[in-house]
Design brief:
alpha/beta, Undecaprenyl pyrophosphate synthetase, 6-stranded parallel β-sheet, 6 strands, 38% helix, binds 3-methylbut-3-enyl trihydrogen diphosphate, binds magnesium ion
Length: 266
């Protein structure tokens, strides 16, 4: 990355990958369920929403580190289709926060060559936020750096239903036959079309569930759960996740170290 944020001196230098990590075995795409904002705040006697505010800083740090260390894509779960069931005040705070942060950070994202996209059912978001999202998406579309996907009003099941509807409509119009619907075609109708599947899923705050996140795309992701609440997720926590990832043996249904299936015989 040629240009760095000028906002503070600490941000302006490119951080190099810690020596114990193998650059050749970094996850190309990291997905993160940023959980525990509310509990982080409550533990400090603060209102829950202060945890969301602090969570933004953790996301900025994570994005910069991923970008500096050579991770090609970061997909963060910011608001689920189920999160509308929270108290109206909290939902409104989150929408206003998304707006404020996007407005404030857009220039920096542009300068850092980040390509930002928002994945989810965006029509349900407040108009002003939708406008900002369009602006941010188009202004960074040609950027050559990290792909930063923010899942906003995102639900994995809804995404799959919406893909099924699109394919059904194409079939009805005679553009495709049902036999042509295969994994690639289905994946091409998801919000993540064109993005490689995540290699690593990180969930903070100790919860061991997927909560309707990237149900299709996480098929073979390695899962790292940490007890750290999202606002406390820092360089060390990311490093631990990457070390954990590099300690895994990814088999994709095959066997360790077996390159030629023919050697097994039948
Ligand atoms: C995650 O933190 C952020 C969003 C879901 C928007 P939470 O708000 O879920 O925090 P906890 O899980 O209640 O602590
Ligand atoms: C998942 O966290 C959604 C986001 C991080 C945006 P939740 O806090 O909503 O998930 P549950 O309710 O614990 O499953
Ligand atoms: Mg939560």
């Amino acid at each position: 990355m040629s240009q760095r944020l000028a906002a503070s001196s600490d941000d302006s230098k490119l951080r190099s990958l810690p020596a114990d990590l193998d650059p050749a075995r970094l996850p190309a795409h990291i997905a993160v369920i940023m959980d525990g904002n509310g509990r982080w705040a409550q533990a400090r006697g603060l209102p829950r929403v202060m945890g969301h505010r602090a969570g933004v800083e953790a996301l900025k740090t994570t994005l910069r580190l991923c970008s500096d260390w050579g991770v090609r894509a970061l997909t963060a779960y910011a608001f689920s289709t189920e999160n509308w069931s929270r108290p109206g005040d909290e939902v409104n705070f989150l929408m206003a926060l998304f707006e404020r942060v996007l407005q404030r950070e857009l220039q920096a994202l542009e300068a850092e060559q980040v390509r930002i996209r928002f994945l989810g059912d965006l029509q349900a978001l407040p108009d002003r936020l939708q406008t900002l999202i369009q602006e941010a998406t188009s202004r960074t579309a040609e950027n050559s750096g990290i792909h930063f996907n923010v899942c906003t009003n995102y639900g994995g099941r809804r995404e799959l239903v919406q893909a099924a509807r699109k394919l059904a409509a194409q079939a009805l119009r005679g553009e495709i036959s049902p036999d042509e619907i295969d994994e690639n075609r289905l994946a091409s109708e998801l919000f993540t079309a064109g993005e490689q599947d995540p290699d690593l899923l990180i969930r903070t705050s100790g919860e061991r569930r997927i909560s309707n996140f990237l149900l299709w795309q996480l098929a073979y992701a390695e899962i790292h759960v940490t007890d750290v609440f999202w606002p406390d997720f820092d360089q060390l926590a990311l490093l631990e996740a990457l070390r954990d990832f590099q300690s895994r043996s990814r088999r994709f249904g095959g066997l360790d170290g077996l390159t030629d299936p023919g050697t097994l015989g039948s």
